[in-house]
UniProtKB/TrEMBL annotation, chain A:
Swiss-Prot/TrEMBL keywords: Cell membrane, Membrane, Transmembrane, Transmembrane helix, Transport
CDD domains from the UniProt entry: TM_PBP2
InterPro entries: MetI-like, MetI-like_sf
Top-level taxon in the UniProt lineage: Bacteria
Family listed: Belongs to the binding-protein-dependent transport system permease family.
Membrane-protein topology: Multi-pass membrane protein
Pfam families: BPD_transp_1 (PF00528)
Cellular compartments annotated: Cell membrane
GO terms classed as biological process: transmembrane transport
Record-given protein name: ABC transporter permease
Gene3D superfamilies registered for this protein in UniProt: MetI-like
Automatic annotation (TrEMBL), chain B:
Family named by the database record: Belongs to the binding-protein-dependent transport system permease family.
Annotated organism of origin: Streptomyces scopuliridis RB72
GO biological process: one example: transmembrane transport
PROSITE patterns tied to this protein: ABC_TM1 (PS50928)
Keywords: Cell membrane, Membrane, Transmembrane, Transmembrane helix, Transport
Transmembrane stretches, start-end: 57-81, 118-139, 151-172, 200-224, 245-267, 305-326
Region (Disordered): 1-48
Name under which the protein is recorded: ABC transporter permease
Annotated ranges, domain ABC transmembrane type-1: 114-328
Amino acid sequence: MTATSASSPSASSSSSSLSSPASVSARPAAGPPRGRRWLPFSPWHLLLAPLTLIFAIPLIWLLLSSVMSNAEINRFPPALWPSGIDLGGYRYVLGNAMFPRWFANSLIVSVVAVASNLLLGSLGGYAFARMRFAGSRVLLGLMLATMAIPFQLTMIPTFLVMKRLGLIDTLGALIVPSLVTPFAVFLLRQFFLSLPRELEEAAWIDGCSRLRVLFLIVLPLSRPALSTVAVLTFLTTWNDLTWPLIAINHDTQYTLQLGLTTFQGQHHTQWSAVMAGNVITVLPVLLAFLFAQKSFIQSITSSGLKG
Amino acid sequence: MSRLPTPLTLPDHGHAHDDHNARTSNDNTRDAAPSAAGKRPGQGAPRRRLRGESATAWAFVSPSVLIILGLSVVPVAWSLLLSFQADDLVTPSRWVGLGNYRALVRDPHFSQAVRNTLLYTALYVPLSIGLGLLLALVLNQRIRLVGVYRTLIFVPFVISATAQGVLFSFILDPEFGAANSVLHKLGISAQGFLTDPGQALLVLVAISLWSGTGFCVVVTLAALQDVPPSLIEAARLDGAGRWHLLRHVILPALAPVIAFLLLWQTINALQVFDLVYVTTKGGPLGSTTVIVYFIWEQAFKNFTAGYGAAAAYALALALLLIAAVPRVTRAVRGRRENHRLEGAAR
């Protein structure tokens, strides 16, 4: 009785909801033909294509000029398109012993920073998420507060600290401050909190140590958060110029960014070599981005919005 | 501009969640007491292990805590101390009290740096957010190749400020650059760009827009896609046109993201340095000397570290005020509203 009386209103509501999707779907169906009447594609492309080109042209120009000869670049007015592929710039830059060295330095600093942020960030984030210890709230609050400290407020004393430690002019001065960021700890903590506790608790009761639980159960489930930390850490360390500029004087210890800007200052008229060096500086990040685009964009939007 | 977002600014949903979790973890430890242990077998962990827990936790957090606090709290205090001293980074420093701050107020180079930074920020922040919003709205349409457009617009963001600076120094080189070559073909006379004191700062804004707009686009686009379709559908069924939909449904839904971008872009713009160092080194005629460049120059080029630290403290204070403004206005507005309500009640 009640079932049938209940079913009749639901039937009427389902019929009304049937009619609304029909009207909804009728709209988009009616939309495209209106646009397609005078163009074989959406008119938005007329706006988007030139706008996007503005973003792409400087990068295309970077690639083109790196394979031009200096003669082509230095005549007036300069050529806008290479007449052939001239690898002189690359040969000069790679033969110049410094660029490979700078590349290696940048790679060492970035890889160590990524690995240690993942490790220390996971350990710290896990303890803050799941373990109880005296002062954990205060400590977490303090760590969060340090994210608001602008870098230029700490850069002079950090230089003095590194000097006392004897690290100035070594890669150590670049590595130590980037070993772990409050961002990594906090982001991983938030992610760990979102995981169900039951899995960990079962393992814990079975006698697994916290460390084993973290490495065998929690981290394999945390791939999205770990990749966010890895991507953002790599991007910031690889791209940084300010701190290497302060901490490094000797050119054997330069990173690529510092080397590139110095190289430009010294080879002011050899633009094709400078652009070849620039391509080498940009390439790792660009390739990483193109291969892991989705993860890049997710990292950046999620870190900005959700934390 | 490649400084990346940190999860500080938005009232995140994580917090509610996190409080909830904290509460349950409290319950757990209480449950560990034998009386409750029987009720929930899965959480009746022996007490012994809880006692060892604290030591393990400290072992887990101490590397992060040492590095993060050691390289932030110590320098912040040291910086404050430095700002009251004359220090050349080598010989022992001398106490000068408020001398650095007094000199800062009177220094025409510092006030020029402040003016340049404010102009850069006032141009870059609204333009990047506005352009980002427009592009995001267009990219949110259902058209082909949207993924390609989005990728191309975003790519400059991942490129370092150094690479951008070197690239644009070349493109905008008055003699050998492609920009003047194109202008020449269009019959326009050659421009100075970064070498022209009247143009340099504007050119820097343009370069920053080239690389920074993609970030705003991607963030805004993500928020746009989170606007519930039912909301839009409901408005449409109520007869809302395109403009009304934008004005009354979509923009209000984007308000938190735009507020975040406003704060984020402002904080980053006030700290611009790498691009300036690579392209103009503060010149020509100091027309692009921004505050952080001024600080760097004082501390590491002129070796007047105390003076640089004082300038850094001035900037940090300004940043703190800016970060606090939204909170304060919200509080004030809330109170005013309360007053109004109370008045109405009376």
